[in-house]
Structures are given as structure tokens and as C-alpha cells.
Amino acid sequence: MENPLSMHALFHIGPVPITEPVVVTWGIMLFLGLGSAWATRRLTMVPGKLQAVLEMFVTVIDDQIRDTMQRDPSPFRVLIGTIFLYVFIANSSAIIPGIEPPTAMIETDAALALIVLAATIFYGIRYQGLRGYLSAFAEPSWVMIPLNVIEQITRTFSLIVRLFGNVMSGVFVVGIILSLAGFLVPIPLMALDLLTGTVQAYIFAILATVFIGAAMGEH
Amino acid sequence: MTIDWWTLGLQAVNAFVLLWILSHFLFRPVADMIAKRQEAATKELDAAHAARTEAEAALTDAKAQVDAVVAKRAGMLEQAQSEAERDRQKALDAARREADKLRTDARAEAARRKAAAEAGMRTEASELALNIAGRLLDRLPASARAAGFIDGLAEAVARLPQSTRDGIGTEGPVPVRAAVELSGDELEALNARLAQVLGRGVALSVTVDPSLIAGLELDAPHAIVRNHFRADLDRVQEELFRDV
Known about the structure:
In chain A, about 70% of the residues lie in helices and about 5% in strands.
């Protein structure tokens, strides 16, 4: 059995090795891009079923952001919505035979977590100013500065590890069961992985919202 | 376990590209459509609210107009009733006056007819009395219808004022009317009685007038001395009329 944590370059573009998570992510991007363009090609004032589903999805994302941040959700809608959709689709890609979810690789999770970290810093400085954002690290006292800095790093790291651990473990377990039991036995575990993937996508998106909201301070 | 930094970087770039793709093809169009619908709904609600406000204002105006019409109607009814009452009272007064006038006229007419009837009856009664008296006197001798009245005439002349008595006979014969023609004795007796009461003799011009029924009448310059039944009956009739 191959180590699920190991990664091999499928091909190279110049010096850049193109690994499977990157290729699968491109596939997901293509799927989401084409699907979105097709689904939103004819939006009308009286929505059809598909448009109603899309509007409900956007509305739910907005409501979650509004409930968490107590702010207008429009500046954060794209970031949070994209994170959720990508993580959800990436986690669910495990049901396609031969496809390993990109989120089962720590590089993908780290990239997402670093984007969240960058967004946290960006929105924190944008809404509080540089001094205000930095002074937030001295809350409630300057003694807390090291702990707050460490918290900033560890919670980003926790984002990475949580998503990576859950998805990778699922893939790992399915791989082990598949190698030991047979073709159809891992199906219940794959279904469980779908549920776990959905929950992890939601958790990742909500935690990103919470971190960004916390960085912006009280409204 | 090692981290492939190329993969990490590419995935980060992929994530940014995916952000742009979904922003451009999914989130922005859908959010714009939601906002557009909300705006349209808000406009519709505002329009509905404005229409409702307008309708309520129109309803209030209509109620005010209805109230005004009702008040005007009530005023007109009251005015019409008062005018009708006034006209009715006026007509009633006019009718009452007309009835009073008719009643008064009727009473006057009845009184007038009653008086005329009574006058006619009296006239008939007096004529009847004259006829009765004439017929009774016709059964007496002619001398009784003249001689018996000579003394009365002389006494009546005697009661005249002196100046009147002095004027009798100064302007010619004294006109004397008799119910029947006087005989010589009666004329002589009349001359004698007049000469006695006047203190002098006067010439007489005797004429016959049967309407006197019985008696004599002397026509002095300033007085008429009557001593006959006709005068008596006329006085009786006058007295009867005066009593009525």
C-alpha cells in the first residue's frame, strides 16, 4: 500500500512539479467555473429551481456571516463562500474512484489556512488601522502579547491540521479497508467521509469567519 | 512527512483564481439578482404603502364629503320642513281669515236678510193696519173723519212757538189738507178754532188727500202741523222700527 501522505509529480511545467492535488484542484476550478457560468447564465426576477437553490445558498452564507460577525456580509461573501464550496467539493471528490481529495494533502489545507490568515490580517488592519490591529494583541494586557501572537499562529495551524487530519484519516482508513476487505466494503466509510467532509467544510468556513470577525474588533 | 512548497504555492494561487472565478460567475450575479429583487420588492412595498396612504386619504375625503352631504341634506330637510310649516301656517291663517270673513259676511247677510224680512213684515203689518183702519173708518160717517180732528189740530197749532204762530197766514191762504172734503160747518168750525188759538182769522186753502185716512194737516211757513191717522200710523211704525 502506498503512503497516502506521499506525493509525486505527475508532470512538470518548467521547474515546477505539478502534483495530483494541483491537477484535481484545477478540475474542481473548471467544474465550479463552468457550472457557475452555466447556472447563472439566465438569472431572472422570478427564479427557477436552480436559481432558487443558488440564491438560497448565497443567502445562507450571508446569514452565517451576518450572525457571526454582526456586520454586512457582502465584503466577505466571496471569500467565505469560495472556501466552503472548494473544501466541500474537494472533500467530496473522494467518491470518484482514483481521485484523492486535495484537502487530504497538507499543502492544500496550508494554502487555504494561509489565505485565511492573510485575510484576517488584511481585514483587521483595514477596519481597525495598523495601530488598532496591533494593539489588539495587547488585549487585555501587554503581558498577553506573546500568547496572542502564538494564538494567531496556532489557530491557523489548527485550521490546517483539523482539515488535513479529518480528510487524510478518512482517505487513509478507506485505503486500508479497501486493501484488506475488498471493493464494496469501504462504501459506508466513504459515505461517512462525505458527511465528515461536509462538516469540515462548514467548520473551516465558520472558523475563517470567526477569525476575520475577531480581527476586525467590536462592531 | 515533507511539505511540497511548489504545491502549496500553486494551491494558494489556485485558491485566489477560484475566488475570482466564483466571484465573477456565481456570487456577484446571484447577490446582484437578490439585491435587485429586494429593491423591486421594496419599491413595490413603497408603492403599495403610498397607494394605501393615498387610498386612506381618499377614503377620509370621501367620508368627509359624505358627512358634508348628510349635513347639507339634513339642513335642507330642516329648512324645507320649516318652510313647509311656515307655508302651512300661512295657508292656515289665510284660510282662517277667509273663513272668519265668510262667517262675518254670512252673519251680516243673515242679519241683513233678517232685518229686511222684519222690515217687510212690519211694512206689511203697517199696511195691513192702515187697510184695517181705513176699512173701519169707511164704516164711520165722513164727518167723523174730519170734524173730530179740528180741535186736535187747533191745540197742536196752539203749542207752536209764538213766532211760528205769528207767521201763519201772513203769506196768503194757509194750505190745509183733509182726508175728506170738509163740509161748510166743518170748515167754519176749523176757521173758528184757528182764529181762537191764533188770535186772528186766517184764510184757508183746503185740499183733499185720502192718504191721510182721517184728519187734517196744516202747512205753516215754518212748521207742518199734522193731526191725522197717517201721521199717527207713521209715528207708530217709526216707534216699532226704533224698538227693533
